[in-house]
């Protein structure tokens, strides 16, 4: 498991910060909006979201399962969200609006997805946590789960943060 400083676990984000992150993530990032990605938890050490199964998200040849590209894009987005939360926690001395501006520089530099089982479910939970937040690069680990809690896919990624 990643090492989280005790201080990070006790940080409580302001409503302004959480609402700002949700607005960026769910509304301003058009692809996330198309996926229907909805944030369910933003904490300094872990983020969670949900995607409801819809016809637009299925693969061409598998009519009842979510497309692998949707899984990959969702997990990449979640890794970025986890980095946003970790950066937000690191800079609590700044105003929420200042911390939100830091996210413009965030970008994926490496992404690996392991598809463990077919993506069949009414809805899916996505989770991500930061393994290491450096001054330039952040490393994350992500999970894609079915409604019954079964692990369907895992991911790991690196993001440029400066």
Write the layout of secondary structure elements.
Layout: H1 6-9, H2 15-28, H3 30-35, E1 38-42, E2 47-52, H4 68-90, H5 96-101, E3 107-115, E4 123-133, E5 137-146, E6 151-160
Antiparallel strand pairs: 1-2, 2-4, 3-6, 4-5, 5-6
What does it look like?
This protein has one domain (6-160): Hotdog Thioesterase (Thiol Ester Dehydrase, Chain A, Roll), CATH 3.10.129.10. It is built from five helices and six strands; from the N terminus they run αααββααββββ. The chain is globular. The chain has helices at residues 6-9, 15-28, 30-35, 68-90, 96-101; strands at 38-42, 47-52, 107-115, 123-133, 137-146, 151-160. With 162 residues, it is an alpha+beta fold.
CATH topology: Thiol Ester Dehydrase, Chain A
Shape: globular
User: What's the count of strands?
Assistant: 6
Helix content: 25-40%
Q: Which structural class do the helices and strands define?
A: alpha+beta
CATH superfamily: Hotdog Thioesterase
- Helix and strand pattern: HHHEEHHEEEE
Count of DSSP H/I helices: 5
Please identify the oligomeric state. single chain
Please tell me the CATH architecture by its name. Roll
Q: What is the strand content?
A: 25-35%
From the alpha carbons, calculate the radius of gyration and give it in angstroms.
Answer: 15 Å
Mean pLDDT: 89
Characterize the main sheet.
Answer: 6 strands, antiparallel
CATH class term: Alpha Beta
Termini gap: 25 Å
Unreliable spans: none
Strand order of the largest sheet: 1-2-4-5-6-3
Count of domains: 1
Pfam family, one: 4HBT
Domain Thioesterase: 64-151
Protein name: Thioesterase domain-containing protein
InterPro entries: ACOT13, HotDog_dom_sf, PAAI_dom, Thioestr_dom
